[in-house]
Amino acid sequence: MWQLEHKALTQGYKAIAGIDEAGRGPLAGPVVSAAVILPHDFSCAGINDSKKLSEKKRNAFFPVIKEQAVCVATGISSNYEIDQINILQASLLSMKRAVENLSTPPDFLLIDGKFTLNMDIDQTALVKGDSKSISIAAASIIAKVTRDAIMKELHGKHPRYNFIQHKGYPTQAHKKAILKYGPCPVHRLTFKGVKEVSNA
Question: What are the strands of the beta sheet with 122-126, ordered from one edge?
Answer without folding.
Answer: 71-77, 31-37, 16-22, 108-112, 122-126
